[in-house]
Amino acid sequence: MNAIKMAATVAFVGLMTQPVMAANDWTIDTSHSSANFTVRHMMVSNVHGGFGKVSGSAKYDGKDLKGASVDATIDVSSIDTRDEKRDGHLKSPDFFDVAKYPTITFKSKSIKKTSSGFDMLGDLTMHGVTKPVTLHAEKMTEPIKDPYGNLHVGTSATAKLNRKDFGVSFNKQLDNGGAMVGDEVNVTLEVDLMKKQETASAK
Fold first, then answer.
1. Does the pLDDT at position 13 exceed 70?
2. Which residues pair with 48 in a beta bridge?
3. pLDDT tens string 68-125
C-alpha cells in the first residue's frame, strides 16, 4: 500500500507541475500587434508611421469585458515612417526624446460597451506626461487556436491625440502661416492577445 500511495503522490505532483492555462491572463503577441499613426504634413498630405514593438499583458475571461484590463508598453525606438532621416528626427529631443523617454505606456481604468464594440478609458504616458485617453475598439474576436495550440483573441482600436498635450510641440511655420506638422494625431492599434500559460505547483 505504501508503494501504491507513493506512486500516486508522485503522479499527482507531476500533474500539478505541468503547464496549465491561466484563467484570465493574456500577453500581447508582439509579433502580430502594432501601434500605427497618421499626422498631417504641411497641411497637404498625411504621413503614416508606426511602432513595431508593442508588449504587455491583459486580464480577460474570454467572455465578459466588464472586468477586463490592459497594461501595454510601446518601444518608441521602434518607430518607422519609411524614412530613416525622419525617424531619427522623431527620436530626437525635438519630438519623442527616446534617450530620456524610451517607452509609451497605456494602463486601462474602465471599459464601456458600445454598439460596435467597446470604449476603453485609461492613462497614456508619453514624453513624461500622463493624460486620460479613450480607445474606441471593435468587438473582440472569438478565441481561436494557432497551429501550436496557443489561444488567441484580437481587436482593433482607434484614438485621436493632440501631441502638444504630451509636450511634443516642435514645429516650423510655413510661408502661408500653416504648420509643418499637424497637432492632431490619429492612432490605430492592432492587438493580438495570446493566452498566458502558467505552471501550477503542488502545495
1. no
2. 38
3. 999 999 999 999 988 898 899 889 998 899 999 999 999 999 999 999 999 999 999 9
- The grid cell for 201 is 505547483
pTM over 0.85: no
Query: 21-199, what's its fold?
Result: Lipocalin (2.40.128)
What secondary structure letter does DSSP report for 162?
A: E
Nearest to 60 by CA among 103, 118, 131, 129: 118
Cell of 138: 471593435
Assign residue 157 a region (left: φ > 0; alpha: ψ between -120 and 50; beta: otherwise): beta
Rounded Cα gap, residues 115 and 97, in angstroms? 39
For 132, the grid coordinates are 486620460
Contact (CB, 8 A) for 145 and 132: no
The two beta strands, 45-51 and 79-80, are antiparallel
Where do the structural domains in the chain lie, given as residue ranges?
A: 21-199
Element (H, E) at 89: helix 84-91
β-bridge pairing 69-75 and 54-59? antiparallel
Q: Work out the mean pLDDT of the chain and round it to a whole number.
A: 81
The answer to whether 67 and 37 are in contact (CB under 8 A) is no
